[in-house]
Amino acid sequence: MKTRTVEIIASPREPHLVGDGFRVHNFIPSGYRMDMQRMNPFIMLDYNSTHNFPPADKPKGVGVHPHRGFETVTIAYKGKVQHHDSSGGGGVIGEGDVQWMTAASGVLHKEYHEEEWSKKGGDFQMVQLWVNLPKKDKMSAPKYQAIKYEDIKRYELEKNAGNIEVIAGEYKGIKGPASTFTPIHMLNAKLNKGGKAVFEFPAHYNTTLLVLEGSIVINGKEEAPTNHMALMANDGEKFEIEASDKAVVLVLSGEPINEPIAAHGPFVMNTREELMEAFNDFNNGKFGYLEE
Amino acid sequence: MNGSNFKTYLTSNLEVAEEEISSLLENCVTKIFKKGQFLLRKNEYCKHAFFVEEGLLRQYSINEKGKEHILSFAPENWFATDRESSVFNQPSVYYIQALEDSKVVMIDEDFIRLLSEKIPAFTDFNNRLLHNHIRHLQNRINLLLSAAAEDRYLQFIKMYPDLLLRVPQTMIASYLGITPETLSRVRKELAQKNFKT
């Protein structure tokens, strides 16, 4: 088995506001060598690094907007988010929870800081990820998977190194609760200082690591500090990370979907015609209606 | 200048070699405007037509009660200008503002004169553009005088397919001459008609 090496350690870009409630660094697709095809099936990753929001009576967030052609995955590390959608669904994503929304043929949704949390304010840290869908599933019915922290199983590493929480896919026989359309591994590695973990994914799976807390050393060589992302090359299967101090790392690895991508704003399809159809359908109310 | 959309726009509408356009475009400046920045303010003299390479502009007036009225949006490949000011040398009654970070080709009188001299087909093309603009304004006046809110909205999304996602609804309502509540009702009724679960 060959070692998978580091291709790039990317520093966080200047943050921008999504609505008024998410202060994010975009890594995918605007990062150097992190375009949609290179990272496929992970086609967008916005990272809200820990940011202290002052108390607010009116919850901050993002108003009604559509999605079509992919899934949105929200991982809440600190803070709470409330969401509503055009099919009447909604809920709260609390600390440690994951919301996996299959937008597929189209939904309208809005997301805000949870009301009570917003009144107190505090540290907020989230990842929002868009996961591509294969052509055959892009127009399937929308659905939700609300994954509670308690339902995420973990693998305890030896020598008190820490543990690996499995959101999707698998780690050493432990399976994640999320169901996916294409093979994806989504793991939170929570390592104690000096803790080591080894990962093995097929070499052609696009693989990346986001360091949320602490810092790590990959394959005993490259250091990835807090809020940095390591893009792994597709040159091998196996790599090791070691926590220089107590660390939280989001590990993503997925089989690429080898189909054309036509993306504009909140729609990710295969052709330009499908994109135009998406705008047309959205404008004409075919995604339904959601009150602002 | 690197204004590639503008270059494509000219070469595809005028039978002229790309090298010739490229050398003519050296007489033209492209500027970057940050979101919220003004390209023109009331009482200023408008010296340019603005061609939008990237981004989005709006042209609007403010009435004596302080209310904004949006005359037009200019996304990529559109022009914005105040002809009363630029052609008839009057102080402008409009504001032109960037709604997104925008890259804009600044077209002045000298550049238009240069194009007319160097490219014989330009004058005809420019006339056609002007007629097209007048047609658009006629349709817009007619819609504002006679059409129901839904028809105004349907015309809007046909002409500006992606603006609903880029512009706050209050601005779209302002452009359509309806209240934001009416726009919201129109969209809700359309969804009830067209949304199939």
TrEMBL record, chain A:
Domain Pirin C-terminal: 187-288
Chain ranges of the Pirin N-terminal domain: 30-131
Pfam family of the protein (one): Pirin_C
Co-factor note (free text): Binds 1 Fe cation per subunit.
Cofactor(s) recorded in Swiss-Prot or TrEMBL: Fe cation
Transmembrane segments: none
Entry keywords, A to Z: Iron, Metal-binding
InterPro entries referenced in this protein's UniProt entry, alphabetically: Pirin, Pirin_C_dom, Pirin_N_dom, QDO-related, RmlC-like_jellyroll, RmlC_Cupin_sf
Presence of the UniProt keyword Nucleus in the record: no
Binding site for Fe cation: 65, 67, 109, 111
Coiled-coil zones: none
GO terms, molecular function: metal ion binding
Family, as annotated: Belongs to the pirin family.
Name of this chain's protein: Pirin family protein
UniProt source species: Marivirga aurantiaca
TrEMBL record, chain B:
Domain of life: Bacteria
Positions of the Cyclic nucleotide-binding domain: 16-115
SUPFAM superfamilies recorded: cAMP-binding domain-like
UniProt-listed Gene3D superfamilies: Jelly Rolls, Winged helix-like DNA-binding domain superfamily/Winged helix DNA-binding domain
InterPro entries: cNMP-bd_dom, cNMP-bd_dom_sf, RmlC-like_jellyroll, WH-like_DNA-bd_sf
Name of the protein this chain belongs to: Crp/Fnr family transcriptional regulator
Organism: Marivirga aurantiaca
